[in-house]
Design brief:
The protein is of the alpha/beta class and 446 residues long. A hairpin with a 4-residue loop joins strand 4 (78-88) and strand 5. The strands form three sheets. It has a five-stranded mixed beta barrel. The chain has a five-stranded parallel beta sheet with strand order 7-6-8-9-10, sandwiched between helices. Strands 11-12-13 form a three-stranded antiparallel beta sheet, with no helix packed on it. The protein is 49% helix and 19% strand. It folds into four domains: 11-104, OB fold (Dihydrolipoamide Acetyltransferase, E2P); 112-266, Rossmann fold (3-Layer(aba) Sandwich); 270-301; 401-440, no CATH class. The chain has helices spanning 11-25, 63-66, 106-123, 148-160, 178-192, 211-214, 220-227, 245-249, 257-264, 268-303, 307-349, 352-395, 397-402, and strands at 28-39, 46-51, 56-61, 78-88, 93-103, 138-143, 166-170, 199-206, 233-237, 252-253, 407-409, 427-431, 436-440. It is built from 13 helices and 13 strands.
Length: 446
């Protein structure tokens, strides 16, 4: 015990000395453990707890370092954290201030699995989405014959749809033998489907377990075998939080084996209730239809009359139509008589004899006018002909020849215009005003 007068340390001083001792004594270390209680407040910092089988250690990854961590930090991930051990003085919390975070152990497997998942997704291996028949005609179950999954599936099928036809194909669902056995069973069932077309759905299932227990269903080749299966595949592996590559490659994924059985078949009790409801609705509809038809029958019965009444109405209508026809005929005859009278007056006005007389008079007047026009035209043309003759005589070369001139032509009939066009001794033709002369060139003057 310290003496009563000894100086007491404050809580802040104790926490400060503890922080200094931890930071200087331990320094920067790598710590491996499982993440738990990961939280990300709005500040951007990440707070978590690292634990192993017998202890746990609080940790903090501040925002300026958190942005350099590639993989998301999730509960259950096994990681290796580099940091320094310190004390948060205001609360006295002992914690690890993280500087870097890496996947470790199972975390490394999850990182590799995530890369494989992304690659298969890019190749379209997870694109299957064929609808499953409900209920299937023949359900093929790939699972362990001794596991809880097949018991759960059969119990649900018996409760919901006892008529279901199920064939169990026993295969190991964990360990090294599981993946080859599952791939071989898928190939065999697809080949047998040609022999039994009623086989229409494959259910691949097992119960929950650790990541290592379910690892057989994360095989790349199994996922590809599911993708290429001609038969549609439902996958129900593990619990709802467990999602394997087989789940993603299947046409339909169920969270649990029991849920898979519920998705594959309808509930007979729902069908019974629906049939009962349909029966009640059918009965109500039939009763309502009978009532409507009864009312319609009563209405038709009230409208029904004795045939004599109908015949009397038809007789009255016939008399009225006969009167209308008589009036129409009388009107038509009167109209035709008026039209005939009009045509007779027009015919009298247009009698052929009168037309012939009028045409003869017009013809005589036209003949007189034609003779007068011909006489005037002949006189005019005669006068014009005399004028043209006088004009022609004025310009005719014969008139020039009549005044004592002559035209000389050589043997080819060409007119001689220059003395140089002749030769002494050449014979020429001289055309006079009256007659022609043959002359010989004795001498040429130029």
């Amino acid at each position: 015990m310290s003496p009563p007068d000894a100086t007491a340390l404050s809580v802040s001083e104790v926490n400060r000395r503890a922080r200094q001792l931890l930071e200087s004594g331990i320094g920067e270390v790598w710590v491996e453990g499982e993440l738990s209680g990961v939280s990300r407040p709005a500040s951007g910092h990440v707070y978590f707890t690292l634990k192993d089988a017998s202890a746990q250690l609080r940790g903090a990854l501040f925002r300026n370092r958190a942005r350099f961590v590639g993989a998301p930090m999730r509960d259950g991930d096994r990681v290796r954290v580099r940091g320094r051990v310190s004390v948060f003085e205001p609360r006295g919390d002992y914690q690890l201030i993280a500087e870097a975070v890496q996947a470790a152990g199972e975390g490394e497997l999850l990182v590799a699995l995530e890369r494989l998942k992304q690659r298969l997704a890019a190749e379209g291996v997870f694109a299957n989405a064929r609808p499953l028949p409900c209920p299937p005609r023949h359900l093929l179950v790939l699972t362990s014959p001794t596991g809880a999954a097949i018991r759960d599936v059969l119990a649900v099928l018996q409760a919901r749809w006892p008529l279901a036809r199920v064939t169990l194909i026993g295969v190991p669902v964990q360990g090294r033998e599981a993946t080859p056995a599952l791939i071989a069973a898928l190939g065999l069932l697809n080949r047998q489907q040609a022999l039994d077309p009623a086989q229409d759905v494959i259910l691949m299932t097992r119960g929950g377990g650790s990541l290592e227990d379910l690892w057989a269903f994360n095989d790349e080749y199994l996922a590809r075998a599911i993708f290429h299966s001609r038969l549609p595949v439902m996958s129900a592996v593990g619990h709802e939080v467990d999602v394997t590559l087989s789940d993603l490659a299947a046409d339909v994924r169920a969270p649990t084996p029991s849920a898979a059985a519920e998705m594959l078949v309808p509930d007979r009790r729902d069908l019974e209730r629906r049939l009962a409801d349909l029966e009640r609705r059918l009965s109500r509809c039939a009763q309502a239809r009978l009532e409507r038809e009864g009312q319609r029958l009563d209405h038709l019965r009230a409208r029904l009359r004795h045939p004599g009444e109908g015949l009397a109405r038809q007789r009255q209508a016939l008399v009225a139509l006969e009167a209308r026809l008589h009036r129409a005929l009388q009107g038509r005859l009167s109209a035709e008589r008026r039209h005939l009278t009009h045509l007779q007056r027009r015919f009298t006005a247009c009698h052929p004899g009168r037309s012939i007389e009028q045409s003869a008079a017009r013809l005589e007047r036209a003949r007189s006018r034609l003779e007068q026009a011909v006489q005037r035209r002949l006189a005019k043309q005669h006068e014009r002909l005399g004028s043209l003759a006088r004009q022609l005589q004025a310009v005719s070369p014969l008139a020039v020849l009549g005044r004592g001139y002559a035209i000389l032509q050589n043997d080819e009939g060409q007119v001689v215009r220059r003395a140089t066009d002749t030769q002494p001794g050449q014979t020429l033709t001289a055309r006079l005003g009256e007659g022609r002369l043959k002359v010989e060139v004795k001498r040429r003057f130029t």
